[in-house]
Amino acid sequence: MGLEVEPLGSILSISTPSGAVMLSKEKIKACQVGVASHMLDVTLLVLDMQDFDVILGMDWLSANHASIDCFHKEFVFNPPSETSFKFKGAGIVCIPKVISVMKASKLLSQSTWSILASVVDTREPEVPLSSEPVVREYPDVFLNELPGLPPPREINFAIELEPGTAPISRAPYRMAPAELKELKVQLQELLDKGFIRPSVSPWEAPVLFVKKKDGSMRLCIDYRELNKVTVKNRYPLPRIDDLFDQLQGATIFSKIDLRSGYHQLRIRESDIPKIALRSRYGHYEFIVMSFGLTNAHAVFMDLMNRVFKDSLDTFVIVFIDDILIYSKTEAEHEEHLHQVLETLRANKLYVKFSKCELWLKKVTFLGHVVSSEEVSVDPAKIEVVTSWPRPSTVSKICSFLGLAGYYRRFVEDFSRIASPLTQLTRKGTPFVWNPACESSFQELKQKLMSTLVLTVPDGSGGFVIYSDTSKKGLGCVLMQQGKEVAYASHQLKSHKQNYPTDDLELAAVVFSLKIWRHYLYSEKIQIFTDHKSLKYFFTQKELNMRQRRKVPHSAALITKQAPLLRDLERAEIAVSVGEVTSQLARLIVQPTLRQTIIVAQLNDPYLVEKHLLVEAWQSEDFSISSDGGLTFDGRLCVLEDSAVKAELLAEAHSSPFTMHPESTKMYQDLRRAYWWRNMKREDADFVSRCLVCQQVKAPKQKSTRLLQPLGVLEWKWESVSMDFITRLPRTLKGYIVFWVVDRLTKSAHFVPGKSTYTASKWGQLYMTEIVRLHGVPVFIISDRDARFTSKFWKGLQLALGTRLDFSIAFHPQTDGQTERLNQVLEDMLRVCVLEFSGSWDSHLHLIEFTYNNNYQATIGMAPFEALYGKCCRSPVC
C-alpha cells in the first residue's frame, strides 16, 4: 500500500473489542480512510490482529465530531468547516463456517453461488544449513543427533554428599498408558545412544513427564531427595546486566544453542550410581549429566567458561548453554563465528541448528531484546503480565513482584509504585487488599507492558546522574547522551529517615556512585540534584561526621588511587529543581526462612487440612499467626519431607551457633519456634548419624558414687565455679582456657590465656571479664590449682569479700558441675578443630554463645534465658 511505518517511542498495550490484549510498537501516520465519499485522516497503530482489519476508536470519532444514531444504526459526522454527512453500515456479515464435503457437493448441485479458496501455509520455510555462510563449513558441529557419549573433558560432573548420607530410594510414580508407551521409547533411545545403562545401584529416583511447548513429552527425573543431601557448588553465574554491558558498540549478533548441552558432559564414574532412575521398565543410571541435578547449571557454566576463556567478554558472552556472539562489523563477525565454531569443534561440543539465530541486527537473549543502540524487555515475556490475576496470598504477591523485579531497572519510579504491594509481604502485616494495592498492581502491570527502552553505554563517557531523595528512600537515574542507561532506588531504614535533608541528599549521590561504580570508574561525570546546598558542598568549611565518612568513600569509587582533592575535582554537582521526580525505593528481598516455610505449607496436605479446620473454628491446638502461617501451640508448623526441615536440622546441630549439641538439647532449641510430627525422634536420628559427634564425644555414664550436694542459691552470680583447661594447641592468644560458671543460672564465660601469666594477670582478667559484668560473687568453688591457692588470689578475694571453697584433692565428686563443664567444653573445642577452619581460640566466643544458649536439663531452660528472662535469638530461632 506504500504506507510508511514508524517505530513508537515505547511499547503500548492495546485492548481489542474481542477481549484480547496485544502489544504495539509501530504506527502509520498521515493515513486516510474513506467514509461516505469523504477522506478523513487517521493515525493507526500496527497490531497482529486477525478479527478486524481496522478499528477506529473513540478518540478518532471524537476528533471528527461523530455521533451515533442507535435507532437508525448510522454515524453522523459534523466537521466544523464542512457540511455534515452520514455513514451507514452494510449490515451483518456472515461468518464463514466449516461444512462437510457432502454438504458442499449438495450445495454445488443446487447451483449455489460458491467461492473456492485454498489454505496457504504462511510459515517461513526453514533455512538449510548449506545456505548459511560460515556455518556451512562446519557440518560436523551442527549434527541432527549427538554421536554418542561425550569425550573426557577437563571437568566432569561430580556429586559430593553430606557426611553420613545413606543411599536414598523412592518408589516410581504411576503413569498413564500413553506415558508408559512414551517412557519405553525414550528409555530405548537413551540406551541406544549410550547415555544410560542398566544399574544395580541402591540409589533410586522416580521418573515423570513434563509437556514441552510443542506438545512432546520431556523425560524428567525427580532428584529432590538427592539434591537435599548434595553439597552445593557455589560456582557463580554471571549477572545479566553485566553481560549486556559487554555489548557496547556491537551491531551484528549471532545466538548459538547447544544440542542437549547437559548430555555433552560425563558424570564422574564414582558418582554414576547416585543418579540411578527407577521405572516400570527397569533400573538404569545416567552416564552423562541429567536434568534436575542441583549443581548442573554451575558445573556446566564452569565448563563453558573454560572452553571460551580466550574470547569471553571480547566477542562472546555465555550463560550456561546459551552462547551470544557480537561484533562491530560483518567482517569481524565472520571471523568471530569461525573462531567460536572452531572452538566448539575442537572441544567436540555440538549445536542445534534449528535453534540458532545468525547475522542479526536485533537479538532476543535472556528475556531481553538487544540491538546496537538499546536494550528492551522481551514482549513475549511480558505478555503473561496482561492476564495476571489479582494476588490473593502473600506468596502470589511475591511471585508477581519476582517477575516485576527482574525488569525493575527498566521502570522509572518502580519502588514507589510497588510500595503498597511490598508492604503486604512484611512480617506481621495482615493481608488486606485495599484500593492502594489494586492501583499499585494495575499501574505496575501497565508500566511493565509499556516500559521504555534503555540504551547500551558506548564507552565514550559523558555520564550524567539525576538523584533525589525523600524520607522513605533514595532514587537516581543514569543517563548518557540524553538517553536512560539504568534506574536505581534504595529504601531507607527507619533510623535513617530521621537524618537531615542535607545528609539524605548526599546519601543519594553516594548511593548512585556506589551502585554504578563499574560505569563511572575514572570518568568525569555530572550529578544533578534538586537540593541547592550540595552545590557548595566542596567549599564548605565544616562537615559533620556522617558527611565526612561519605566523602572519601564516594571519591574512592571514582578514582581508585588518587588523592581525595583530585578525586573530588572529577565530579561536578549541579542543581536541577523539579526536573526529576522522586525515585522512592523499596528493595525486593529474598523471602526469610519463616516466609519460605509459610509458602511451603500450602503444598502439604496435612497442614492444608489443619489450616481449613482452623478457619472453620474446629481446632484448638492449631492457629494462624498474623503473617498467615499455621502454628501449633504458637510454634510454626514445618511440612514433611521438605528441604526446609533438612536446613533447620543442619542449622540446629552443625552451625557455629550450636556446636553439635546432643539430641535433647537440639530438640529443646528447635521446639521453641518450630513443630512437626515425630520431631523429637527425627532429632535423635539426625544426631545419631552425625559423624563429627561420633568422633569427638566419648560415651558418658552417670557416676555410681555419692556426690557432695551444695547449698541452695538465692541469686544469680552469687556463687560461681571456676577452673582451667590446660595443654591445648598453642595459638596467638594462648593455650589455656579459664572458665567461670554461675551455679544458679549455669551461664558461663570462657577466657583464653597462657601458662606464663602471673597470678596478678589472672586477677586482672577476672576483674575485667567477670566482676565487670556480674559484680563480686559471695562464694567461689574451685580445685586446688596453684593459681587459686596463691597468696595473691587469696588476698584479692579477701579484699573483695568473697569466700573460697576448695574441692578435695583427687576427689572430683565434690564439684561435679566443674567436671561436667570441662567435658562439654573439651567436646566443643574438638568440634571446632574438625568442623571449622582456623584455630580454636578464634571460635571461643561462639562456643561461649552456644553453651549459654543451649538447653540445660538441670534448670529446664537455657542459661541465657535463666539469666536475662528470654532466650537469645539465633539464626535458627
TrEMBL record:
InterPro entries with a match to the protein in the record: DNA/RNA_pol_sf, Integrase_cat-core, Integrase_H2C2, Peptidase_aspartic_dom_sf, Retrovirus_Pol_polyprotein, Rev_trsase/Diguanyl_cyclase, RNaseH-like_sf, RNaseH_sf
SUPFAM superfamilies: DNA/RNA polymerases, Ribonuclease H-like
Domain (Reverse transcriptase): residue spans on this chain: 191-370
Protein EC: 2.7.7.49
One GO term of the biological process aspect: DNA integration
Pfam families, A to Z: Integrase_H2C2 (PF17921), RT_RNaseH (PF17917), RVP_2 (PF08284), RVT_1 (PF00078)
Keywords of the record: Endonuclease, Hydrolase, Nuclease, Nucleotidyltransferase, RNA-directed DNA polymerase, Transferase
Gene3D superfamilies associated with the record: 1.10.340.70, 3.10.20.370, 3.30.70.270, Acid Proteases, HIV Type 1 Reverse Transcriptase, subunit A, domain 1, Ribonuclease H-like superfamily/Ribonuclease H
Residues spanning the signal sequence: none
Keyword Oxidoreductase: no
Limits of the Integrase catalytic domain: 705-871
Protein's UniProt name: RNA-directed DNA polymerase
Organism for this UniProt entry: Cucumis melo var. makuwa
